[in-house]
Amino acid sequence: MKRRPPKNGKVTQVENILVVDGNALYKRGFIGARDEYNRKGQHIGGIYQFITVLRKQLNENLFHRVFVFWDGEFSGKLRWEIYKDYKSGRGKDYINGTKPEDLEEVAQRGVVFNYLEELYIRQLVDEKVEADDFIAYICKTKKENQKITVVTSDRDLCQLVNDDIRMYLLDLKTYVNHKNFNDYFKYHYENVALVKILTGDVSDSIKGIKRLGEGTLLKLFPDIAKRKMELYEIIEEARKLQDIRLSEKKKPLAVLDNIINGTTDGVQGNRLYEINKKLVDLNNPLLTENAINSVNELIDSPLSDDRSIKNVYKMLKEDGIDILLGESRYDDYLLPFKKLIEREKKNNEILN
45-69: per-residue pLDDT in tens? Predict the structure, then answer.
């Protein structure tokens, strides 16, 4: 067991925490295992893949606690109230309801939730709050002796990377930390939010500076790849670059003027920087007071003991997932979860 001395000189055990973006993991498993059916002809790929990826993490790493956060039915509404085009490209309707979802997918997601409850995995969903904000809250309020691994495919969460926080990116099937970040991305790990503020986010329908893409941004400001930069530095550097062009009697670059003036073709108007910072900067996650109370309780409270690994055996058989287990069967397949349960039960004794 790795140990490190805290500031007061006492030896403190490192606590490893696994935090999972539930929707990202489920969606990837559901789509990637569309051909997996049980004996009744019911699709079970999403359930099996979700549990299997968690099992892999628990089998390869020592985690003392596991958290799974889900998007609620109206998750994203807090950002929509700031920016009315938020996720408009996904057909979101935050006034009359969200875009209808695949009923089979929703049903399987509910089954996954039930499995995780029995496996002593801490999970939370809030009607208005996005999973990203819960994950950011966990990372921002972690204790000094805690190290966190986040499982996701969402690049926005990479802004949380630091000495004690790493990402497991599902699409890359690899861990990304502050040391190897530039092996996968062209900018410094502390500039993830800055890049999004300036260039926007197509997947969330967030517009950035007019005519400014990531390639142009890196070409104009190469220091973004080398060190942490602030927005005011980019604006000041844009002014200097434009002044140099004018002194050399060169045509001014429209994109530099756009950066200086915060010009966008989005609905943010002259509040582009202010609005985009609120939308993308996870240093200040968007949470309701009720959500904060719920996540604090989830972190600090012992788990109820009315759970059983035997219930999981029964569920696996009833759902027909046993046909996918092969030689591992129940005991081998669930062994990593049994070890987690033992650690959580010990934690319950301490909290009680």
Answer: 889 999 999 999 999 999 999 999 9
